[in-house]
Design brief:
Rossmann fold, UDP-GALP_mutase, isomerase, about 375 residues, five-stranded parallel β-sheet, binds uridine-5'-diphosphate, seven-stranded mixed β-sheet, alpha/beta, 13 helices, binds flavin-adenine dinucleotide, 2 domains
Length: about 375
């Protein structure tokens, strides 16, 4: 074995694929019973509808290198992601656009009029100086829209005062003064035509790659554990960085999700793939209806059944799957301490969403892995 990779998510698989193509023998271990990390999906058995098991995953990128790379393993549908939100029992389009603004104010503002209004409402903060999510949100869209669509949703999702969250979290959402309600701004987007798992399996399908599932790196009863491999073979580690160091610098805070899945005896529950719930009195953040991600599969998906998944968000304990880095000021200090510790680890390379404690989309995880391969490992 030339390289041991801990974690078979997009980061680990990209490194594995590149190393195998370069003639290296690679072993990938994962503590889960399947490959693919959080991008893994499976068909719901009763309906055959593909369900993303760890929350809906939409692929999008503006990076030509990443787009060329991912197209080696899958074709993409022409799905374009659009999200709606329910506030006080009325449905509005997201991200906040001219349609949302006019519906909210019951008005017919032109782009310039809407901009002038938002500027007036946002007067108290300047987006450039915004120190946290709340200031940034108000600076971008003004207090009334912030309170309707962002404040309570964010509080449900992060269970952290928006004043303690970094401004970047909200920068992910564009604000537009047109009626364009595409959720993403990227050049390319789509869903893998034959599903995420087929794509992930193709990345791992090489005689130089061995995959061992249900294998935890910290379980010393299995041979490829931390104690027996560090310093013996180069390691790419994509699990949680705080866990690697046995929480020596304290726990970094993560958010986890609970999914409540139901098969309903109706053809169409909500008419769209994702409906957010902006208000505090609804306990879940959003409902996914998976058949709408693949309208091109209409001839093989049932017309009298549908799969919906309610998503609830909460802080993760050590026993939960860590999904989103919360990234408070304390977390950032902790992360710096872990980065110092990481420098002392001989030939261990920390990568991916968990290994670097960063909010990485799939294209970012793949792009970062390609860079790590080219610049450090190759
Ligand atoms: P992961 O996919 O988390 O893989 C890490 C792997 O390491 C896991 O399989 C884990 O089991 C394994 N592991 C951890 N510890 C150990 C251990 N001790 N021993 C062995 N194995 C271990 N991105 C998008 O581009 N679009 C989206 O719409 C999108 N939606 C998302 C929705 C949710 C709810 C979440 C959580 C993420 C979403 N993402 C989305 C991000 C996407 O999941 C990540 O970019 C991608 O999974 C990152 O891959 P990764 O390899 O870094 O991490
Ligand atoms: N957000 C919000 N209201 C919404 C959708 C998003 O306030 O209806 C905020 C929220 O703080 C969230 C951030 O925008 O964490 C990024 O949203 P995105 O949909 O990208 O989150 P993800 O899909 O990664 O959970």
């Amino acid at each position: 074995m030339d390289l041991l990779i801990v974690g078979s998510g997009f980061f680990g698989l990209t490194i594995a694929e590149r190393a195998a193509a370069a003639g290296r023998k690679v072993t990938v271990i994962d503590r889960r019973h399947h490959i693919g990390g959080n991008a893994y999906s499976a068909d719901e058995p009763e309906t055959g509808i593909e369900v993303h098991q760890y929350g809906a995953h939409l692929f999008h990128t503006s990076n030509p290198t990443v787009w060329e790379y991912v197209n080696r393993f899958t074709k993409f549908t022409n799905y374009v992601h659009r999200v709606y939100t329910t506030h006080k029992n009325v449905v509005f389009p997201l991200p906040i656009n001219l349609g949302t603004i006019n519906q909210f104010f019951q008005a017919a503002y032109t782009p310039d009029q809407a901009k002038a209004l938002v500027q007036e409402l946002a007067g108290e903060f300047d987006a450039k100086d915004a120190a946290n999510l709340e200031e940034k949100g108000i600076a971008l869209i003004g207090r009334p829209l912030y309170e309707a669509f962002i404040r309570d949703y964010t509080a449900k999702q992060w269970q952290t005062d928006p004043k303690d969250l970094p401004a970047e979290v909200i920068s992910r959402l564009p604000v537009r003064y047109t009626y364009d309600n595409r959720y993403f701004n990227d050049t390319w987007e789509g869903l893998p035509v034959d599903g995420y798992t087929a794509w992930l399996e193709r990345m791992a399908d090489h005689p130089n790659i061995e995959v061992k599932l249900s294998t935890d790196y910290f379980d010393e009863s299995q041979p490829l554990n931390k104690k027996d491999t560090v310093g013996q073979v180069p390691v790419v580690y994509t699990g949680p960085v705080d866990r690697y160091f046995d929480y020596a610098e304290g726990e970094l805070s993560w958010r986890t999700l609970d999914f409540e899945q139901e098969v309903l005896p109706i053809g169409d529950f909500q008419g769209t793939s994702v409906m957010n719930y902006a208000d505090a009195d609804v306990p879940y953040t959003r409902i996914h209806e998976f058949k709408h991600f693949h309208p091109e599969r209409a001839d093989r998906y049932p017309t009298d059944k549908t799969v919906v998944v309610r998503e609830y968000s909460r802080f993760a304990t050590r026993a939960d799957e860590p999904y989103y880095p919360v990234n408070t000021a304390d977390d950032r200090a902790g992360l710096l301490a872990y980065r110092e510790l990481a420098k002392g680890e001989r030939d261990v390379h920390f990568g991916g969403r968990l290994g670097t404690y960063q909010y990485l989309d799939m294209h970012m995880a793949i792009g970062a892995a390609l860079s790590m391969w080219n610049n450090q490992l190759a």
